[in-house]
Design a protein that fits this description.
Elements: H1 12-25, H2 33-36, H3 41-44, E1 48-53, H4 60-63, E2 72-76, H5 85-95, E3 99-105, H6 115-125, H7 135-143, H8 151-162, H9 169-172, E4 176-180, E5 187-191
Parallel strand pairs: 1-2, 1-3, 3-4
Antiparallel strand pairs: 4-5
């Protein structure tokens, strides 16, 4: 339990009440993405995908000035490519993506814990999970999104993306890495340095 009232976790009832207020004051029915694509997602759908951290400071629609119909977005812990790879393959099947932007940020919460912290917590909470000679925990360790708090981690993520065996090579070659400085709000292109290097 936090001592900061602004950080208190709302109850499900509070969330449902907030939804009612949203529905009454803000919500406007919008066409589905399929309808916006004239029922042809591969031709008219968004061909840009942004993989970004789930933190509110890293909302790609805000920090990159994107509109919902301009891109698809996957948000996960730390904006890691490898934990989003299966979803990327599915979206590529639907939209025939042309470009992927991987957006990492400074001071990400995933940089404040280590893989060992997570593994120790899992062992404590679920000792039965490690019962098969550590095989399950080894599989978990590979998937963990924790990283260093610097652009080098983004370069490592992009290098790992190139090794993904089930996503089209031309799509993997289109991956661009951006690093958001949350203090200034500015992004820096980490890889490749220019579009000419794609």
């Amino acid at each position: 339990m936090t001592s900061n009232p602004e950080m208190a976790t709302p109850s499900v009832e509070d969330i449902i009440e907030r939804n009612k207020q949203y529905a009454e004051t803000v919500h406007q029915p919008r066409p589905t993405l399929l309808a916006m694509c004239n029922n042809d997602m591969k031709r008219y759908g968004p061909h840009l995908l942004v993989v970004a951290c789930l933190d509110y400071q890293c909302n790609p629609y805000n920090v990159l000035g994107l509109k919902p119909y301009e891109c698809a977005v996957i948000r996960n812990v730390s904006g890691r490519f490898h934990t989003a790879a299966a979803e990327i393959a599915a979206l590529d099947t639907a939209f025939h993506l042309e470009r992927i932007i991987v957006l990492h940020r400074s001071n990400c919460g995933a940089t404040h814990i280590t893989k060992q912290d997570v593994l120790d917590k899992v062992r404590q909470d679920r000792p039965d999970f490690d019962a098969v000679g550590g095989i399950q925990l080894a599989g978990l360790e590979v998937q963990l999104p924790v990283r260093e708090d610097n652009p080098l981690a983004l370069r490592e993520d992009l290098k790992a993306a190139k090794m993904c065996g089930f996503i089209r090579k031309e799509l993997l070659n289109s991956v661009v890495g951006l690093y958001l400085d949350v203090d200034s709000g500015l992004v820096k292109r980490i890889h490749p340095a220019t579009d000419n290097m794609l």
